[in-house]
Amino acid sequence: MKNALKPEAAAALIADGATVMIGGFMGVGSPHRLIDALVDRAPKNLTIIANDTAQPGVGIGKLITAGIVQTLITSHIGLNPETQAKMISGEIAVELSPQGTLVERIRAGGSGLGGVLTQTGLGTPVEDGKQIIAINGVDYLLETPLRADFALIAANEADYVGNLNYALTAHNFNPIMALAADTVIAEAQTIVPVGVIPPDGVKTPGVLVSHVLERAA
Amino acid sequence: MKNALKPEAAAALIADGATVMIGGFMGVGSPHRLIDALVDRAPKNLTIIANDTAQPGVGIGKLITAGIVQTLITSHIGLNPETQAKMISGEIAVELSPQGTLVERIRAGGSGLGGVLTQTGLGTPVEDGKQIIAINGVDYLLETPLRADFALIAANEADYVGNLNYALTAHNFNPIMALAADTVIAEAQTIVPVGVIPPDGVKTPGVLVSHVLERAA
Amino acid sequence: MTITLELPASKSSFNPKDIIAARVAEEVRSGMLVNLGIGLPSRVAGFLAGVEDVFFQAENGVIGLGARPPEGMEDPFLTDAGGGFVSAVPGAASIDSAISFALIRGGHLDMTVLGGLEVDSDGRLANWTVPGKMVPGMGGAMDLVAGARRVVVAMTHTAKGKPKIKETCSLPLTALRRVDLIVTEMAVIEPSDAGLILREVGPGQTVETVLAATDASLLIDEEPPEMSLRLLPIGIAKESPAP
Amino acid sequence: MTITLELPASKSSFNPKDIIAARVAEEVRSGMLVNLGIGLPSRVAGFLAGVEDVFFQAENGVIGLGARPPEGMEDPFLTDAGGGFVSAVPGAASIDSAISFALIRGGHLDMTVLGGLEVDSDGRLANWTVPGKMVPGMGGAMDLVAGARRVVVAMTHTAKGKPKIKETCSLPLTALRRVDLIVTEMAVIEPSDAGLILREVGPGQTVETVLAATDASLLIDEEPPEMSLRLLPIGIAKESPAP
Fold first, then answer.
1. A105 touching C (Cβ < 8 Å)
2. Which strand ranges, in their side-by-side order, compose the sheet holding A132-135?
3. At how many degrees (to 10) do helices A99-111 and D97-105 cross?
C-alpha cells in the first residue's frame, strides 16, 4: 500500500543537482501537477531526461522557463524556442538523442543492460565520440544506458498499491521511465481501489512505483 | 482484416529446415492446435526457439517426440527427459540461453538492435565463444539477436485485424516473439469483432500478426 | 525558382504540396503500416481512396491514427506526433514509446513519408537540423530513416528558388541509409546504386525544367511519363499550369 | 552424515527443509518484491506472518503470486515457474517475459531465494547443471543471481552426506556474483570480502558440527547464536533433537 503524497512533498524530495526523468510527449502524458510543484520549489541545476520540452508555458517547458535546468537529454526541442535559445547561449547543455535510442537507453538503464546497439545515428553527428561495434560485419553504435534519481510519470489510473495504466497516446515514455529511476512518483488522473485495474490491465506494476501523488482537489 | 487460417494450412506454410519460435512456458500459453498440426505435417530438421520443451506429450514436448527438431535454442529442458536424452545422444543440437537473455535476444531481433549487453552468464559456460565488451570499466557479454521464419504464438483474444491480448501467466514469450519473425501466426482462445479489445487493451498490435488461426471447432 | 500553381479559385487547395501528397498516396498499398511525418507528409492521408486496411502509426504511440475528431470531442490524451488532436480508427492500438520504436527500428513499418531539407546524389536525406539556425533535434527522424522498410521523401523541389536535391548535402545527414523514393511537385526520383533515376515529371514539367531545378545528375532511361495523379480529383492536375 | 530431525509425530511436517524455509522467511521484509525458486525455496511463503505488502514474483509472468486455488478453481493460464497452479493476490499484475526479466536484471527484485547444489568460499553459487548427469538448462537462475538485489541460497547443508559448501565448486557456476546469505538446516552463513562468516547455528547444532559438515573455512566472530526460528510454531524448533 502506498501513502498518497502531496505535490509539494514530492517536489521537496528533489534536491539541487538531481537527475529527473519526466514522461510526456509535447506535454501529453506529462505529470503536470508534479511539474508545477517542481517549479514552485525550484531546485537548482537539474538534469532533465525527457522526450521533448513541449512549448513555453506547457509541461516541461515550464521548467525551462524557470531556469532550473542545467542539463537536458532529449530528442526534440523544435517547438520550444526558449530551449533552443538557452542551448545556443550555453545556459543549458543539451544532449540530443534520437527518440528510439533515447527510449532504449532508458529501458537499458532500467533493465540492467550495458548499452544499446543501434544503427540509428550512424553517419550523423550522433555518433561523435561514441564506440562503433561491428557485429557479423554490420556496424552498430553503442549508446549508453540512462538512469535517474527520480522519474516523474503520469498515468491514467493508479490503484492503492501503485499499479498503473495509461490512456492512448499518453503512454509514451512513462512506462519505460518507471523502470529506470531510484524513486518513481506517479501522478494519475484517478486513484482506484485495488482490483479495479485487473492484473492483465496493469501496465506498470506497483512494485516499481515509490509514491502515488494524492488525487487532484 | 485477416483471413482465418486452418491449422493444417498454417502448418503447411512451414517447410523443412524452417526456424520457428513458439510461445509458452511449460506448455502454458503455447499454441497447442498449431503444435498438433505441425506434428501431423512433420516438416524435417526444424530449428525451434522456445523457453522450454515442457514435458513429453505436452506442448512443445510433442515436437521433440515427433523427431522433427534438429536444433533447439532454449533456456530450460529440465522437465523433459526426452529432450535431455536427444541432446546427449546428439540427435538435437541444444543451445542453452539464460531465460532473460533469451527473451532479450528475441526482442533485439525484432527491434533492429545489434545485440544484447548483459552480465548474465559471465563467468559461466554461457560466455564460451562470445565477445565480452567493457563499458565504463564493467564487463558485459554480447549476446546476438534472434529472429525466425515463423512465430507461433498463443493469445487470449484476437480481433479481426489481428490485435491480441493475453491472460495472466500465458503472456510469457508470446508478445516478444510477435516482433521477431517474418510470419507470425496467432492462435487465440476466442476471436472477437474489431473494437471488443479497446486500444489500451491491445498487447500485440494486429500489424505484427500475419495470420489468425480459425476458431476452435 | 519558385513553383506556383495557378489553380482555379474553387480548387485553391491544390497547391504543390497537394500534388506531392497525391503522388505519394499512390505508393500506399492495402495492408500497409505507414508513418507520416508532420507537416507536408501528413497531407497524404487526405488523398487515399480505395486503399483498404492501411494503418497509420504516429511515433508518439498510436497505431490506427484517424482524422481530427469532431469539434468539442478532442481528447487531450490522443494526439499525433506534432501534438495535434486526432482520432483513432476501429482496431487501433495504444503503444508506449519502446514498442513504437521497436516497430520503427525492427522493420515493421512498411513505409514512412518524411519531409526533407536536402537529398544527395546517393539518395541520402538531411532533414533534421540547419546548424546555427534551426536546432529542433532529430525526434524520431533518424530512427524512421534507419528502420522503415521503405522511406519516401515528400518535399518541394526547391526552397527559395534553390535546389534541394544536390550532389552533396550541405546539411548533416539524418542517416546513412539511401531513401527509396523522392516525390516533389516537379518529379518522382528513385535513388539507386547507379544514381538518381528520374522516373516521372510533374504536371506541366519537362526533363529540362526538372534538370534545371536540380543540383545533381539524374539518370533518364526513356522519356519519363507525367506523374500519375489519379488521386487528385480528375482534371485538376491537368489544369495546373507550368510554373 | 545425513541430517534427520526426529520431530513429534503431530509435527511431522517440520523436516530440515521447513527449518530452512522458516529461517529464510525471517529475511523477508514488508514491501519487498521476492522471487522464490521452485522446490525448497517455494516453502518460504508458508512461513511468513506479520509481514505486509510482500509481493511474490514468478519469472514466468506474475507479480502477486498467491497460494494454490481451491480444488476445481485452478486456471490453466495461471501457474508458477514450475508449472504448478497458483492464485493471484489482490493487486497482482500480469507481465510478459521481457518485463519479468527487466525487473529481475534491472535490480527491481528485492530478494530471490534459490536452491543450491554447491557454494564456494567466495560465496558463488552453482545450481543449474551437473555435467553428464543433469542438464536442465539454467532457466532464469543466472539472471536471478546476476540481477536480484539480494540473493539467498536455501539448501540442505549436505547432499548424501557430502558438504555442499566447498572451498571451490566442482560444478559450473551460475554467476560470478557473490550471494548474500546461505541458509541451511545447520547454519546461517554470510559470504563477505573476508570469506564465509558463520552467523548462526541450526537447532541442536554447534560450531563443531557445522565445521565438520562444511568443506570450506568459516570465519567465526563470537560464538554464533542459535538460529532465530520465531516463524516456526513456538517450541517446535527447540524440540527438534540434534541429528
1. no
2. A116-118, A138-143, A132-135
3. 60
Question: What digits encode the pLDDT tens for the residues A107-138?
Answer: 999 999 999 999 999 999 999 999 999 999 99
> Does ipTM exceed 0.85?
yes
Contacts of C234 (CB under 8 A, 6+ apart): none
Q: Work out the end-to-end distance of chain D between its first and last CA atoms, rounded to an integer number of angstroms.
A: 9
Gap between the Cα atoms of C86 and A106, Å rounded = 28
- Cβ contacts of B127 on chain A, cutoff 8 Å: none
Q: What is the mean pLDDT of chain D?
A: 88
- Average pLDDT per consecutive 10 residues, chain A (217 residues; last block may be shorter): 95 98 98 98 98 97 98 96 96 98 98 98 96 95 98 98 98 98 98 98 98 94
For position D20, what pLDDT does the model report?
95
Going from N- to C-terminal start, the domains of chain D cover 4-239
Over the stretch C140-155, which tens digit does the pLDDT of each residue have?
Answer: 999 999 999 999 999 9
Q: Are B93 and B72 in contact (CB under 8 A)?
A: yes
Which domains are assigned to chain B?
4-114+145-213 (3.40.1080.10)
Say which of D83, D137, D176 has its CB closest to residue B122: D176
Smallest Cα distance from A66 to chain D, Å:
33
pTM: 0.95
DSSP per residue, D190-235: EEETTEEEEEEE-TT--HHHHHHT-BS-EE-SS-PPBPP-TTSPTT
List, for residues B52-70, the tens digit of each pLDDT value.
999 999 999 999 999 999 9
Overall fold of domain D4-239: Glutaconate Coenzyme A-transferase (3.40.1080)
Q: Which residue of B has its CA nearest to C100?
A: B111
Q: Which residue of D has its CA nearest to A109?
A: D106
- Select from A26, A119, A156 the Cβ nearest to the Cβ of C83: A26
Residue D131: burial class (beta carbons within 10 Å; 0-12, 13-18, 19+): exposed
Q: Are D200 and D228 in contact (CB under 8 A)?
A: yes
All residues of chain A having their beta carbon less than 8 Å from the beta carbon of residue B117 are 108, 113-115, 117
